[in-house]
Design brief:
Blueprint lengths: L1 H22 L25 E2 L5 E7 L4 E7 L3 E10 L7 E8 L5 E2 L7 E4 L5 E7 L17 E11 L8 E12 L18 H9 L26 H24 L13
Parallel strand pairs: 1-3
Antiparallel strand pairs: 2-10, 3-9, 4-8, 4-10, 5-6, 5-7, 5-9
Helix pairs in contact: 1-3
């Protein structure tokens, strides 16, 4: 009975510890208020419009334009980018495409989703989607793994007839992330997230004679700060597994050590 009580208490402790960890696998909450979302897009990496995850950004443009947005993605997140382009009433068949680049401007492949779609003549709108790989806390320099920092979204038409160039279009983009938890945790992490201007800001901080404002070009970051996932549920499950292993060893010893000395047997000299 004593062993049963100990094991039951240990299982209850593991369940309470794993409760918050299980919540990490749910999608990140999305703000419902889009009133503060941007209504324009940039035309290059340097002029990309910053957007927060969970908000729908809009922009009016012309067919043939390159539209750029930027958003933050932290360790353990798996971002999903969605775009909708509303086309004019009269147009020929045209192909639209979304591309995502990381803070080093390396193009990131989509795990799945309709990254490129062709809108038939007269189609009112076209929808695109790209699910990226999970953002890693650290990676080898030669790898192309997604790392925490600023990501760039580019939306453009790659197949437009000359007669349709310049026709007005309306674009909507939205980025949401799913927190993958400790399943995606790796050893090591970056010293700084890959955001524009971070290296220049470090140089200015090290230069005592420079009293200027740090040249951080990007002001967007996750709601709970960068590298928020370094204490992942991987540590919880590791500690729980160690506790269960210790309890199993104690229980096995208690079951196999044998009965005590009978009362009628005198103790050995």
């Amino acid at each position: 009975m004593r062993i049963t009580r100990v094991v039951s208490a240990a299982l209850l402790t593991v369940g309470l510890a794993a409760g918050p960890a299980a919540a990490d696998s749910t999608p990140s909450p999305s703000p419902s208020d889009d009133s503060a979302a941007p209504t324009s897009a940039g035309t290059s990496f340097r002029t990309a419009t910053e957007i927060d995850q969970g908000r729908t950004a809009t922009a009016n443009a012309s067919a043939g334009d390159y539209l750029y947005w930027s958003f933050p993605a932290d360790t353990g997140q798996r971002p999903t980018v969605r775009a909708t382009v509303k086309l004019p009433a009269q147009h020929a068949a045209q192909t639209w495409q979304i591309d995502v680049y990381d803070g080093l401007r390396r193009r990131q492949a989509c795990r799945y989703g309709a990254q490129t779609r062709t809108a038939a003549a007269g189609t009112e709108s076209v929808e695109l989607a790209c699910v990226l790989r999970t953002v890693r806390a650290w990676s080898e320099p030669w790898a192309n793994d997604p790392l925490p920092g600023t990501y760039y979204l580019r939306l453009t038409a790659v197949g437009v007839r000359t007669a349709d160039l310049g026709h007005p279009v309306a674009a909507e983009v939205r980025v949401e992330s799913e927190d993958m938890g400790g399943a995606a945790a790796v050893d090591g992490r970056l010293a700084e997230p890959l955001i524009p201007g971070v290296a220049m800001a470090q140089r200015q901080d090290e230069d005592e004679e420079d009293s200027g404002v740090p040249a951080v070009l990007s002001a967007i970051e996750p709601d709970d700060g960068w590298s928020s996932g370094r204490w992942s549920d991987r540590w919880v499950w590791t500690a729980s597994g160690a506790m269960l292993a210790a309890l199993a060893g104690i229980g096995g010893y208690a079951l196999t050590r044998g009965s005590r000395r009978p009362r009628h047997v005198p103790p050995s000299a």
